[in-house]
């Protein structure tokens, strides 16, 4: 999330929290939009070293990247105290933000179709490329930092990240790796009403392991293969069980906005923001803030900003806010940044495709879904559920998505519908080898078992 929400309305009832989620419903025929977010790991091309905030060796760093884009795009600054930590379009469009280790993120605007997402990406890279080149910076297209240790990875000057950094080791062994050494692409989709939200959440959760498998692209860490195809996904398994996972309660009778609110209220907090200060309340209960009895801030009561910010610190495979976030994919090449929104638009924005996807997955038990989630970081498309490989499931799901996109019939200037953006996923399913496996082949082949080649071969074009 690029910016913390600013809404000082006091929360006087639990129902206000439910209504805040429900307000995202796109009723009355309002268009269903697609938002795409992607992270990319910067490095100095001269020596394959990480890019600190203030730079290194006389070279400009992440701050200089932001300043250059600010001057190029005219976007407004996002500040944390005096530090420039992001940019945003003042008309409510996209934003640029920083992840804890300097991962450079575009939070795309809500757009009508994947063609518009493609154009947004073109504009983003066209603006970023000359700024990055002038600084000698390039960007990896991997889902995890392949070489630098956690200690070598820079830290961005954001107060909330300092709070998270202190808290993460208390609740999981790999939370700091999640913060500093992973990168993702995610898609945000709309819902029409509560029933639609429930259906999309269930399908989304059931299929996130498939998305992880198809987008698996993080086989390296600390300069060598990890033995897994999505190390990023594996890291999430040992980050913080209170705020991650497959949300089995979402498949139970009665799931809806109220049940998600109750879940979120029981997730420990990280911080409370007042003015420009992030107060460290890590591990505290939001329920105590609601009642004005938070030990760290006696008498302080929750506002709607606190609620929105708290929801942004919960990290399940599918996250509910005023829209749904699909969070299972590794970052990757440019074509993957449009493949994921195409997959999601085809599945979730065509009623027949959504119903058939639910029919495909509704017989999967909670235990089977959880076992699949545990298996997929290592096995990717070879993981199995209810007797079928994910490669086979992927064929069915891509066919549904392709049909949904053709039914949407959103055409570009050449008369092509959005299904053209599924091509990278169709190639992976047809070949049976993920991008991670292709890169492992290169590592043991032409790279001569040296990770340094990744800084040439696994780089976003600019």
Task: Describe it.
- It is a single chain.
- The chain is an alpha+beta fold and 462 residues long.
- Helices cover 41% and strands 16% of the residues.
- It contains 17 helices and 18 strands.
- The chain has helices at 14-22, 62-73, 114-135, 159-167, 175-181, 194-214, 231-236, 257-265, 286-290, 304-311, 334-348, 351-361, 366-379, 390-408, 423-431, 435-444, 454-457; strands at 34-44, 49-50, 76-80, 83-88, 95-98, 104-107, 137-140, 184-189, 220-221, 224-225, 244-245, 271-274, 277-280, 315-316, 318-320, 324-330, 384-385, 388-389.
- Strands 1, 2, 3, 4, 5, 6, 7, 8, 15 and 16 form a ten-stranded antiparallel sheet that branches. It has a two-stranded antiparallel ribbon with strand order 9-10.
- A hairpin with a 5-residue loop joins strand 5 and strand 6.
- Helix 6 (194-214) packs parallel to helix 13, helix 12 (351-361) runs antiparallel to helix 14 (390-408) and helix 14 runs antiparallel to helix 15.
- The chain is globular.
- The model has no long low-confidence stretch (mean pLDDT 97).
């Amino acid at each position: 999330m690029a910016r913390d929400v600013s809404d000082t309305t006091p929360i006087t009832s639990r129902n206000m929290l439910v209504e805040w989620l429900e307000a995202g419903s796109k009723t009355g025929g309002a268009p269903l939009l697609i938002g795409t977010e992607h992270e990319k790991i910067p490095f100095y091309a001269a020596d394959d070293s990480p890019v600190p905030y203030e730079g290194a060796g006389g070279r400009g760093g992440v701050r200089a990247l932001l300043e250059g884009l600010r001057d190029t795009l005219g976007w407004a600054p996002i500040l944390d105290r005096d530090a420039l930590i992001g940019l945003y379009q003042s008309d409510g469009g996209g934003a640029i933000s920083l992840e804890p280790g300097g991962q450079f993120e575009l939070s795309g605007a809500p757009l009508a179709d994947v063609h518009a997402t493609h154009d947004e990406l073109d504009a983003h890279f066209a603006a970023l490329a000359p700024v990055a080149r002038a600084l000698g910076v390039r960007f990896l297209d991997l889902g995890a930092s392949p070489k630098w240790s956690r200690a070598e990875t820079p830290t961005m000057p954001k107060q909330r990240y300092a709070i998270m950094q202190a808290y993460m080791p208390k609740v999981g062994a790999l939370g700091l790796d999640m913060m500093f050494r992973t990168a993702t692409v995610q898609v945000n989709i709309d819902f029409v009403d509560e029933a639609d939200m429930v259906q999309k959440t269930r399908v989304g959760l059931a299929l996130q392991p498939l998305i992880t498998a198809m987008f698996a692209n993080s086989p390296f860490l600390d300069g060598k293969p990890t033995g897994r195809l999505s190390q990023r996904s594996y890291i999430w398994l040992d980050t913080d069980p209170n705020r991650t996972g497959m949300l089995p309660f979402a498949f139970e009778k009665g799931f809806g906005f109220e049940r998600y609110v109750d879940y979120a209220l029981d997730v420990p907090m990280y911080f409370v923001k007042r003015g420009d200060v992030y107060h460290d309340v890590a591990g505290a209960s939001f329920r105590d803030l609601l009642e004005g009895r938070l030990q760290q801030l006696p008498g302080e009561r929750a506002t709607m900003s606190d609620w929105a910010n708290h929801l942004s610190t919960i990290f399940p495979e599918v996250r509910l806010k005023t829209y749904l976030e699909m969070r299972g994919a590794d970052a990757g090449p440019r074509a993957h940044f449009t493949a994921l929104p195409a997959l999601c638009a085809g599945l979730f924005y065509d009623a027949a495709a959504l119903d058939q996807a639910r029919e495909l997955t509704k017989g999967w038990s909670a235990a089977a879904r959880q076992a699949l989630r545990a298996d997929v970081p290592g096995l990717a498309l070879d993981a199995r559920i209810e007797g079928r490989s994910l490669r086979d499931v992927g064929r069915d799901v891509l066919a549904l998505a392709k049909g949904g996109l053709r039914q949407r019939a959103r055409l570009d200037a050449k008369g092509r519908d959005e299904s053209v953006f599924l091509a990278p996923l169709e190639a992976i399913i047809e070949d049976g080898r993920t991008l991670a496996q292709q890169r492992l082949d290169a590592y043991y082949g032409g790279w001569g078992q040296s990770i340094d080649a990744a800084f040439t071969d696994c780089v976003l074009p600019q």
